Amino acid sequence: MIIITVILTACSSYSVSLFNESDFIGKTSADITAEYGAFDCTSMPIGDDGLYRSARGGYTICESQTGFLGTSPELLFFIIFDENGIAVECETGYRPGG
């Protein structure tokens, strides 16, 4: 149990220091990828205009780790975009489909 707690604590501490929601809200997906690079995971394909619309894009903040008690899932920082391609919300979560 101590090992799991340490791994989860390390991932959550890393995510807090690496990404700040206020750095993304109000920006387009094009602005964000120009500054931070391509997303590691997206829920929809990019549009013809270069924007993700009604979608979310994620950056990996903690890789999947294998230990004695099994494998911990990969943790991502997701940015949610509205129908205009503007970031409106952020959340942490797991890669869809595992």
Describe the structure in your own words.
- The chain is 26% helix and 32% strand.
- The two termini are 23 Å apart.
- It has one domain (2-94): 2-Layer Sandwich (Beta-lactamase Inhibitory Protein, Chain:B, domain 1).
- The radius of gyration is 15 Å and the shape is elongated.
- The chain has a four-stranded antiparallel β-sheet. A two-stranded antiparallel ribbon has the order 3-4.
- It has helices at 2-18, 29-36; strands spanning 41-42, 55-62, 65-67, 70-72, 75-81, 87-94.
- It is α+β, with helices and mostly antiparallel strands and 98 residues long.
- The model is unreliable at 1-9 (pLDDT under 50).
- The protein is built from two helices and six strands.
Strand content: 25-35%
State the helix count: 2
CA-to-CA gap between the ends? 23 Å
**Element-level helix/strand string:** HHEEEEEE
Main sheet? 4 strands, antiparallel
Number of extended strands: 6
Regarding quaternary structure, what we see is single chain
What's the CATH first level? Alpha Beta
Q: Could you report the average pLDDT, rounded to the nearest whole number?
A: 81
Which structural class matches the secondary elements? Answer: alpha+beta
CATH-derived architecture = 2-Layer Sandwich
Strand order of the largest sheet: 1-2-5-6
Radius of gyration: 15 Å
In total, how many domains does the architecture comprise?
1
Low-confidence runs (pLDDT<50, min 5 residues)?
1-9
Shape, principal axes of CA atoms:
elongated
CATH topology group: Beta-lactamase Inhibitory Protein, Chain:B, domain 1
Helix amount, in percent? 25-40%
